[in-house]
Write a structure and sequence with these properties.
Layout (H helix, E strand, L loop, with lengths): L3 E6 L7 H14 L4 E5 L7 H4 L10 H5 L5 H4 L1 E2 L6 E4 L12 H11 L5 E5 L6 H8 L3 E6 L3 H16 L6 E7 L1 H6 L5 H8 L2 E7 L2 H9 L3 H4 L3 H13 L17 H9 L3
Parallel strand pairs: 1-5, 1-6, 2-4, 2-5, 6-7, 7-8
Antiparallel strand pairs: 3-4
Helix pairs in contact: 1-12, 5-6
Length: 267
């Protein structure tokens, strides 16, 4: 059975899209799924750094598309997770080097070999976004619970529908329960009401994400952090498992009611 292509995208930069891509991919690889990540953010590659693979790049996505190397030559295997591979983005500034049909062709070549192809999309709505969603079977939108990020996510969700892709699934990242309690941050319930898409996961604010990103080690590998557990839950949902939406607060309480609402919707 051919693999599935998941595109991870966002309306604006800085919401944690690349971190989400890396951690979902690593969590799937930990469950013995064969996963390849494609960094589609030409000119602004970061996925290699988050995965700790930046020193091993020889060829990149544009080299494959333009025939300077074979697909296998551009794929970097993660030594910690033998089921995880990366095709890095090119550092060239020419974003027109790749077309949507190129991405479809590339993904069609990868799908027979891999269980999952994860595409890290550039933020926003320029050409790179259309490249990234062209081959997608599943589109995941990452947002923060901030008004500007949610508004941008809403625009992206509209574009996904206009391209007859989706429906999109949503990850709400960097939730701060204390701020939600005080009314200083949108609650997950507020965000879902505004965006009206299916929830895939809730990620709490967790400083271990910053330290793990700086070290090039996906947070799911250490297994102890709250964000790591949340990313593992997301990967399990993508794999078709029914995983309840646990409270964001370790002490429980704040999101229990929300959890019940989500589970009614099949989460």
């Amino acid at each position: 059975m051919p693999g599935k292509v998941v595109t991870v995208t966002s309306g604006k930069g800085g919401v944690g899209k690349t971190t989400a891509t890396a951690n979902i991919a690593a969590a799937m690889a930990l469950k013995n799924q064969k996963v390849v990540c494609i960094d589609a953010d030409i000119g602004l590659r970061n996925l290699d750094v988050v995965l700790g693979l930046e020193n091993r790049i020889v060829y990149d996505l544009v080299d494959v598309i333009e025939g300077r190397c074979r697909l296998r030559q551009a794929m970097i295997r993660d030594k910690r997770l033998p089921e995880l591979y990366l095709i890095p983005a090119a550092q060239t500034r020419d974003k027109s080097a790749v077309s949507p049909s190129d991405m479809v062709r590339l993904c069609n070549e990868l799908k027979p070999e891999f269980d999952w192809v994860l595409i890290d999309s550039p933020a926003g709505i320029e050409r790179g976004f259309r490249n990234a969603i062209a081959a997608a079977d599943i589109i995941v939108v990452v947002t923060n619970p901030e008004v500007s990020a949610v508004r941008d996510a809403d625009r992206i969700i509209g574009l996904i529908e206009a391209e007859e892709k989706g429906p999109a699934q949503l990850i709400i990242n960097r939730i701060k329960p204390d701020m939600v309690k005080k009314g200083d941050m949108l609650s997950p319930d507020d965000v879902l009401e505004l965006l009206a898409v299916e929830l895939l996961g809730l990620i709490p604010e967790d400083e271990t994400v910053i330290t793990s990103t700086n070290r090039g080690v996906p947070v799911v590998i250490d297994g102890k952090s709250r964000a790591g557990r949340a990313f593992r839950n997301i990967s399990q949902r993508l794999l078709g498992e029914r995983v309840p939406f646990a409270s964001i607060e370790e002490s429980g309480g704040l999101f229990n009611q929300i959890g019940r609402i989500f589970r009614k919707g099949g989460g």
